[in-house]
Task: structure prediction
Amino acid sequence: MQLGMIGLGKMGNFMAQRLMKAGHDVIGFDPSDKARQALTDAGGKPVDALDKLVGALQAPRAVWVMVPAGKVVDETIEALNGKLARGDVVIDGGNSNYRDDQRHAELLSHKGIDYVDCGTSGGVWGLKEGYSMMVGGDEDVVDRLRPIFEALAPGKDKGWGRVGPVGSGHFVKMVHNGIEYGMMQAYAEGFSIFKHKEEFKLDLEQIAQIWRYGSVVRSWLLDLVANALQRDPEMKDIAAYVVDSGEGRWTVAEAIDLDVPAPIITASLIERLRSRDADSFSDKLLSAMRNEFGGHAMKKE
Result:
């Protein structure tokens, strides 16, 4: 099957490689010369303009969009709306908000262009292990794209599936990432407790390795914890600053809108935000208040 891909960053190129290994024809566009060269080196066919990508694809066209969520996706969908034709399909495989998916699908539908949203998990390991994909869209359209999803997934019938109509794929991926926040926070806090129990001189990597087999808390995340601790047991080369790509915030907002309590996911999001405040005014004010009402000692800088 032939597929056009917009966005040839690391994950986009890895997905292209997996598709080509399965016998699919990938034509890719990216404004970066380096990204296009990476596709060339992998055996793909890069082009340097969106018009050339559309022109190189056989109708009905399938175009996979793998660009940053928000404005860049909006601009890409608007551009494709002016170039694609009835029967073509656009797949957003990035991390868009599900409400944006619904808006994009409505825009493209006026020209008979189909739209599918695909929440994709697997990161840099997907090239080897396959990607977990949560797909939203019309059943007939998703079924037509089945060879693409089967090639990207860990197996033809595992690790992927249509979860509902347009928007549902990214909605499920959004909650997936919210859960991920909570799991990561729990591991981080547990190992921090180990680190602070100095009298036992615990080997954190050893504990992670023990837990990987037979333990009820074993997981792929724990495998990654073990890898990280093996490389840098003291985390000396890591800044105490945790970024977020948006899905955690959206998950918390959705939980509030639905009146669903989600304290663990919410707390893990707040911890990520807290990690970025190297000079916390709130903590300084807390210390000052304790001193004001109780004369408690304050640590001075």
Q: What stands out?
A: The mean pLDDT is 94. Strands lie at 2-6, 25-29, 45-47, 62-65, 89-92, 114-121, 132-136, 160-164. Residues 168-196 form the longest helix (29 residues). The first strand starts at residue 2 and ends at 6.
